[in-house]
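Exercise 7. Given the components listed, write out the predicted structure of the assembled complex. Treat all entries as one system.
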Amino acid sequence: MVVVTLSSLLSTCDAYKYKTYFYQQKVDHFSFANQDNFIQRYLISDEHWDRRGGPIFFYAGNEGDITLFAENTGFVWDIAPEFNALVVFGEHRYYGVSLPYGNKSFSEPKYSGYLTSEQALADYVDILTYLKSAIRGAQKSPVITFGGSYGGMLAAWFRIKYPHVVQGAIAASAPILQFTDLTPCDKFGQVVTADFASASSECAEVIRKSWAAINSVTSSVEGKAWLSNAWKLCQPMRTEEDVKTLKDYLTNVWTNLAMADYPYPANFLAPLPANPVKVVCSQLTASGHPPKTLLEELFAGLTVYFNFTGQAKCLNPDQQADVRLDDKGWDFQACTEMVMPFCYDGKQDLFEPAPWDLQQYAKECNRKFGVQPRPFMAQYMYGGKLINAASNIVFSNGLLDPWSTGGVMWNVSSSVVSVIIPEGAHHLDLRGADPADPPSVLKARRLEKAFITSWIRSYWEEQQQQQE
Amino acid sequence: MVVVTLSSLLSTCDAYKYKTYFYQQKVDHFSFANQDNFIQRYLISDEHWDRRGGPIFFYAGNEGDITLFAENTGFVWDIAPEFNALVVFGEHRYYGVSLPYGNKSFSEPKYSGYLTSEQALADYVDILTYLKSAIRGAQKSPVITFGGSYGGMLAAWFRIKYPHVVQGAIAASAPILQFTDLTPCDKFGQVVTADFASASSECAEVIRKSWAAINSVTSSVEGKAWLSNAWKLCQPMRTEEDVKTLKDYLTNVWTNLAMADYPYPANFLAPLPANPVKVVCSQLTASGHPPKTLLEELFAGLTVYFNFTGQAKCLNPDQQADVRLDDKGWDFQACTEMVMPFCYDGKQDLFEPAPWDLQQYAKECNRKFGVQPRPFMAQYMYGGKLINAASNIVFSNGLLDPWSTGGVMWNVSSSVVSVIIPEGAHHLDLRGADPADPPSVLKARRLEKAFITSWIRSYWEEQQQQQE
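Answer.
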């Protein structure tokens, strides 16, 4: 039985002290048709900063409020003192408070259309160039960029595209290959499934059977009412659309649990106990039960995810994760550049079978946002698997993490390397040190620190040579 | 005395046979606010193409009609047979017939604003990716990119930004450092001056004195009429604005002569004799003459530039070079991303003194095009001098070429190298072989071919390794 209080989490958050700044940023870095500006947020801590050329550690903010990432990237805070680093967290455009067009930002493509990874990276170039000119002692500082998940993709791409701005990148759980023709669409669900199956033999089976149970129970008005009540839904289900929303929510819950399967309590996607998959699976033991009983049992497991704090009064399927991870922004990105094919067969995975249908997907995107997806955009821009001309990138991946299927899992060259953490969930290595950390993540962090040290040393050696 | 007929030039042009194709291209590769398409032209020759993996030689089209570059890049045509290469010339957006918004393309920023080097390179990524998928046998072909002048900048930046698309770049006379804070603004004019001074001691002096002579002669209505008549201007000068236009034209003429100072007759910026600076200077011998006599003498030199063919009925100062080099497009680029500071003092150079005044420049740009220049855009995007993370680029520069002052004139690394051609004018090495070629350009071309060979070999070795 896992007992945890939230106080330890909160005090950890308080431990990271930073100041908040704002930068007047260009809406469009690549063209002159739109010459608007907007206000972009970034966070700075100079607590351990050595003004005589200490490095800059830059977190390439991803799809959410930047304070969320500042609080969940303890590794950067942990190592800043020994590197005497200035710590900067940049907020990704269209997330948190960095909305180029305020409330209108997602209203139509003329406003939403500038939400792309290319524009985000160009934002970070401008912010860093500005900081280096504005902060005394930072002019020549080497910059190391960090990021997890989409932030890890950005970190890797930042080094690939702007090696004159960042000297190296720690790209944690960065699925830069989770795109069309690069990774089979069924691999992701299979890793989620393996995580649950390894917790208990019955667990994955209960979840796999739940889809049919939901479909049969909710096929009647009474059934919808029953399940709404049994699962304490905030709004009772009335339509097939509501049922679909609930199933989408569940798909996300099982995925998020696998991603956040950390060996200690954490509050990333949601407040969760240590080893949450094991905790959930301890509730899911009898796959042979009739539908309603099975769904009641499933709810016990579900409760671990949506109400670990005991504060939730009801289950809201519209709220998949931490509110600070903005669904709207990511939905738009997934409909434009970040088109990541997923498919499930319900046999090799525990999800409801669903093929990947790009045509249907594109139609839906056009309906929702007025945009046509560009499934090959990221590949054309950043190279897909063809990154052997790059340098100074660590790609770390945990094998519990379903996103590892889209990660770089081989050494591309002597300076673009893969670090694998067998016991790791989603970017565990970027989190703060914890007594429950498995040895493999300690080793990964040691390696990452060694690479950072060598990148900084090479940088100063080059500076030296240029002056001679 | 130089005697030349144009027929040899024309037959050379005819010698390059290609087919013309069109590609449906995105207007904006980096955002989704504008999802328009346009039709882009490219030229292909498969005459020497080996379908079993022969390389693709891609000329990164620059500021003009692509046929002009196809006709003036003989080096690519000369070496295609021995490499069994497919030759492709891509037309730069907003030039030639590749106008995204037809007649409206330059009417306002919402149409003109997509004319940037970043968009142009992304165009070339799409075209090459399409060609590799569409042309049988090209799927795995290595791509070598070529370019001269701004095209050379594009070639270098193409390799820097998209090493997964192009395996190497021959960047001829590519002034990637001709930007704010990277190259002093007065160097360019000094090289032009040195070219004229080395032809004859009096020559540079005649030109240097001509500005005061023009100013004094045109200060009266009669003087304007006299000079209009003496110089056979198509439209007589009436205003100070007309005088300024004439002086701007002259500044360009002297610059163009230095750039096109080839050892044989050529038709690049204008039809010119061999060693045109020497030919012009043979007319400019007496700097001690009174203003009107000096201007009459200057006109004899000028005639070499604007009327070498004997076909011109009058001098049109609005037409600075070959009509296929589109001034409007480049004016826009110079007002947005390609902000290249030039300044003259009339002492160390032969031009009328003119400081570099960014504020005034920006004001003028805003008036003309409704845009604000971004003087650091190219530097932020491509790194300026900080290109040591790049690979497989040859930067060639001729020392007669004023653009060499903004070129990469040192070996950045073992694979980003500088090739200097002491007797070379503007991208002489990219031109077709000629009996009058100096040994230094033959050596440069041999080196470039050796690098191309090694890039292709490395590429196939990597392919081999990936299959093992």
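Discussion: The two ends of chain A are 64 Å apart (CA to CA). Residues 1-13 of chain A have pLDDT under 50 and may be disordered.
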